[in-house]
Amino acid sequence: MSEVNKAIDQAALVIEIKALEKNIVEKFDELKANGAKLSGEVKELGEAKSETVAKHEALEKQYNELYDRVQAVEQKGVTAHESKAYNLGDEFIKNEQFLSMAEGKQQSARMEIKTAIINATGQNQALVQSDRMGGIMATPNRVLSIRDVLPSSATSSNLVEFTRENAFTNNAGPTIAGSPEAYENVTKPESAITFTLVSEPVITLAHFIPASKQVMSDSASLASHINGRLMYGLKLKEETQLLSGTGANHQLNGLITQATAWSNESPNITNEVDIIRSAIKQAHVSEYIPDFIVLNPQDWFDIEIRKVGTSDDRYVVGNPRNMSTPSLWGMPIVVTNSIAAGTFLIGTSMGAEIKDREQSSVAISYEEGNNFTKNMVTVLAEERLALCVFRTEAFITGSL
Questions:
Q1: What whole-number distance in Å separates Cα of residue 243 and Cα of residue 225?
Q2: Crossing angle for the helix pair 297-305 and 272-285, nearest 10 degrees?
Q3: DSSP string, 320-342
Q4: 179-223 pLDDT, tens per residue?
């Protein structure tokens, strides 16, 4: 066998061992998971289910077979390594020029040394295939949840109008007039209500990525990744717009932008928990019952870790073991980076509504510039919506 063939065979062994090692790790994880399931059934039911036992036995057999294969392949590698090593001195004294020189036929001897076959390092190795992991390691997605706490419905127009009550003067009372007092044939009290017609335009949120037709066709995982990231980016912008859109330059008029400012009535209210309770009271005074709080993760962290005192290690918000979903004063907390640290928002979900003109979607098209002649496509994510804040007093914002 030539040295080249030996090197190729050795490289093939390495590849085969790596593949087997990957399979045996995956099979061990399956075996471990099924073992945990088996133990759980024994603990809960007194015995394991027959199908669980059968699966465990099958996994054990598969694991042992893989292990035996790894050992067999590794032994082949050891045998190959035990073959006689290439010795330059031995080869030289066997060389024809050396034999001629020894017989006095020539004064010198020369042996040409061929280029050694060694494996490269880094990428694009000729003999050893790299272990390419599937998928794309993406950056983490932000948890999006503002839409989840607001009602939504569809609209078929590009402008949404609603009537907002400005003021209600309530003069309801006993029917009485005159002196001496009369209870009949008298004018009843008159109340008053004023209204304002409010309009909110439907805005478009969109972005796109150009990509080649080939890569979208040849790599299903990349195409799926692009679609997912475009949709996530669209929803991320929606979240920030629902909270902080300015209402200008075709932006949504966000909840924080329209919310009533928190009014601090006491200099003793300084920590986050008291500030939020004060804001809740302010909403109650205006006849609104808040049902959610929005906080930045840093602010929620500061609240969670605050201790009762320097000599008391108890947490102010309660026992961490009993805390499941974030909540404060009996209300769920939306913890999101879409609100700035140091700012809070409390709100009543029925005080606003999202109106969807076109649900978010991803489209792929050649109809962009010279895409068709260049085999390029444009991947577009888009949605159209409006935000209607019926009562600004139903939302209160301030600094912590």
A1: 27
A2: 110
A3: GGG--S-EETTEEEEE-TTS-TT
A4: 788 888 888 888 999 989 999 999 999 998 888 888 777 767 777
Q: How far is 286 from 277, CA to CA, in rounded Å?
A: 14
What's the first-to-final CA gap in the chain, in angstroms? 78
* pLDDT confidence of residue 74: 58
pLDDT at 85: 47
pLDDT at 5 over 90: no
Q: Give the rounded distance of the alpha carbon of 256 from its chain centre.
A: 24
pLDDT in tens, 308-364: 877 788 888 777 777 667 889 989 999 999 999 999 999 999 999 999 999 988 888
Run of H or E including 65 = helix 50-81
Strand 292-295 with 260-261, pairing: unpaired
> C-alpha 41: how far from its chain's center?
33
CA distances from 128 to 13, 74, 82, 132, 217 (A): 10, 16, 21, 12, 28
251: tokens are 């932006």
Indicate the helix (H) or strand (E) that contains 298.
helix 297-305
Amino acid at 130: S
Measured N-to-C along each axis, helices 3-45 and 50-81 cross at an angle, to the nearest 10 degrees, of 160
Q: Which CATH superfamily is domain 202-399 in?
A: hypothetical protein PF0899 domain (3.30.2320.10)
